[in-house]
């Protein structure tokens, strides 16, 4: 599509390209790249919006279904009543994450951040499905 | 039998003798260059998969026996000169190359016809997860901004006396995308393929050295410390639709990008659709490796001393570096604008990943971000601009091809 517009407008002989023509070609070329990717960005935002609204509907339907069922007590709430471990920075709520895996995740994060575990406060760990 | 005469004939027919006559010393220099490239590829691990092949191709073509233009030679420059000469009976005749060419001539047909770069793009597509780009489409702005070096180097090349076709091929080095650079150069300025391919792959390997000083220069510590929010999860359907949408949109916009974008997106569709795992695996591994073997050695063969050792090569090396630097700067500047516009939610370091060297540029953003703030994880955020850069450089190449072909 754009090729058909560009080719007639192109410099007749590339060997004779003047500095002025080169400047115009460079600015035009950069603009075409930007325009192309901006339009693509808009297309992606549109498709993304469609999928997001679909997800939101599915979530709402799932929540409605969950309300009908008996709500399961999160493991975190029972643990919140337990006394704090000595030297720890507080309780962590676990959602669908076994204790062992949570401990492993916290150890990895502490190691990556090069900070002692008892100086970090994890609020919750949730498995993203 | 005259032993002395026989020895003399043997000596004169040897490659060692040809180093001493008719500018054969230039081949010696190129052999030294190929050894340096082999060292960089093997010891320093500079893009070894391609650089080792290119360096060995360079070595083979410059060993004077092979470069002497004899019928047994591996590569015949004169055949390719005839191929490009409008007035010659063998103009654009692959048949003549097949009849008279050596091994490297025949392998080079894949470069000349644009087959290898397109197949490499297919492999890149099959290896790339476009999820970070789909979840954050504004990454495309950074991918576009990082093509600034392409057009600045193009302009610089024209100012230095290169023709439009040559300048376009030199400029595309700034896209930091080897297959695109090779694809465009074979179409527009095949005589510059050797220096452009070597410059492109060498600078891509040097990204961890070229980019960090510019990143520190153009960003403040506060900007580098910014932690970005986790992007949304992208559904499988979106990932399947993405290559189809991009292929349709970009190819309709610039049909000259069809070989590159078409193959990139086909490879990605094979990866994401979930029913062609065997094909995806083959493209990512076996095919990619085979094409890399052919591409490296045949590109290396274009570095014959009499063409490579010139002032033009030095200019290309300098312009290539300029292109790389300005592409990084372009990405960083738009990254800074996004930082301001979003009230500090975007770390401008991800802008430098807009040059399409995947995933090296994204890794550099991650490393610099983590240096400023050890709890910073920018890799997935930087992958968005990084893959956007691949699409951006293909569009830039398509534009230049449409203008100068």
UniProtKB/TrEMBL annotation, chain A:
Record keywords: Cell membrane, Membrane, Transmembrane, Transmembrane helix
This protein's record includes keyword Nucleotidyltransferase: no
Compartment(s) where it occurs, according to its Swiss-Prot or TrEMBL record: Cell membrane
Transmembrane feature ranges: 27-51
InterPro entries noted in UniProt: Na_pump_deCOase
Domain of life: Bacteria
Keyword Disulfide bond listed: no
Main location as per UniProt: membrane
GO cellular component, one term: plasma membrane
Listed GO biological process terms: sodium ion export across plasma membrane
GO molecular function: sodium ion transmembrane transporter activity
Descriptive protein name: Oxaloacetate decarboxylase, gamma chain
UniProtKB/TrEMBL annotation, chain B:
A Pfam family reported for this protein in Swiss-Prot or TrEMBL: OAD_beta
InterPro entries assigned to the protein according to its UniProt record, in alphabetical order: OadB_MmdB (IPR005661)
Main location: membrane
Signal peptide, first to last residue: none
Keyword Transmembrane helix: yes
Molecular function GO terms recorded: lyase activity
Subcellular location: Cell membrane
Membrane-spanning segments: 24-42, 49-68, 106-128, 140-163, 196-219, 240-267, 287-305, 317-339, 383-404
GO BP terms: sodium ion transport
UniProt keyword list: Cell membrane, Ion transport, Membrane, Sodium, Sodium transport, Translocase, Transmembrane, Transmembrane helix, Transport
GO CC terms in record: plasma membrane
Membrane topology annotation: Multi-pass membrane protein
NCBIfam families: Na_pump_decarbB
Protein name stated in the entry: Glutaconyl-CoA decarboxylase subunit beta
Lineage: Bacteria, Bacillati, Bacillota, Clostridia, Eubacteriales
């Amino acid at each position: 599509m754009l090729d058909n517009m560009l080719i007639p407008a192109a410099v007749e002989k590339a060997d004779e390209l003047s500095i002025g023509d080169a400047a115009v070609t460079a600015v035009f070329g950069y603009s075409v790249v930007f325009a192309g990717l901006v339009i693509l960005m808009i297309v992606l935002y549109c498709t993304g919006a469609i999928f997001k609204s679909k997800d939101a509907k599915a979530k709402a339907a799932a929540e409605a279904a969950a309300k009908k069922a008996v709500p399961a007590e999160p493991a975190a709430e029972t643990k919140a009543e337990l006394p704090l471990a000595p030297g720890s920075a507080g309780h962590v709520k676990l959602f669908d994450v076994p204790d062992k895996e949570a401990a492993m995740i916290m150890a990895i994060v502490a190691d990556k951040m090069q900070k002692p575990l008892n100086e970090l406060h994890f609020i919750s760990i949730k498995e993203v499905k | 039998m005259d032993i002395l005469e026989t020895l003399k004939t043997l000596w004169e027919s040897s490659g060692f003798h040809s180093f001493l006559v008719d500018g054969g010393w230039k081949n010696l220099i190129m052999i030294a260059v190929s050894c340096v490239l082999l060292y960089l590829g093997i010891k320093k691990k500079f893009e070894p998969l391609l650089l080792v092949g290119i360096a060995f191709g360079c070595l083979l073509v410059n060993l004077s026996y092979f470069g002497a233009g004899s019928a047994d030679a591996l590569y015949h420059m004169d055949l390719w000169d005839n191929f490009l000469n409008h007035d010659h009976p063998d103009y654009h005749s692959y048949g003549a190359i097949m009849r008279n060419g050596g091994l490297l001539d025949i392998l080079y047909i894949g470069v000349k016809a644009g087959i290898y770069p397109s197949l490499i793009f297919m492999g890149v597509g099959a290896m790339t997860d476009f999820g970070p780009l789909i979840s954050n489409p504004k990454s495309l702005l950074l991918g576009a901004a990082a093509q600034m070096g392409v057009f600045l180097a193009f302009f610089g090349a024209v100012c230095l006396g290169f023709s439009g076709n040559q300048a376009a091929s030199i400029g595309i080095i700034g896209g930091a995308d080897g297959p695109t650079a090779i694809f465009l150069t074979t179409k527009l300025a095949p005589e510059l393929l050797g220096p452009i391919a070597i410059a492109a792959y060498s600078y891509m390997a040097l990204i961890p050295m070229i980019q960090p000083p510019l990143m520190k220069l153009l960003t403040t510590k506060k900007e580098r410390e910014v932690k970005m929010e986790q992007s949304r999860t992208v559904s499988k359907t979106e990932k399947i639709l993405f290559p189809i949408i991009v292929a349709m949109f970009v190819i309709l916009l610039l049909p000259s990008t069809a070989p590159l974008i078409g193959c990139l997106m086909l490879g990605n569709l094979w990866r994401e659709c979930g029913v062609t795992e065997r094909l995806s695996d083959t493209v990512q591994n076996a095919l990619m490796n085979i094409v890399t073997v052919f591409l490296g050695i045949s590109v290396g063969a274009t570095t014959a001393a009499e063409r490579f050792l010139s002032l033009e090569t030095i200019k290309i090396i300098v312009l290539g570096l300029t292109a790389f630097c300005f592409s990084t700067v372009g990405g960083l500047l738009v990254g800074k604008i996004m930082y301001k516009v979003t009230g500090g939610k975007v770390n401008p370091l991800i802008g430098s990943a807009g040059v399409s060297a995947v995933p090296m540029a994204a890794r550099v953003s991650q490393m610099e971000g983590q240096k400023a703030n050890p709890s910073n994880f920018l890799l997935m955020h930087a992958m968005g601009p990084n893959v956007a850069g691949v699409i951006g450089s293909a569009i830039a190449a398509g534009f230049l091809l449409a203008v100068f072909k």
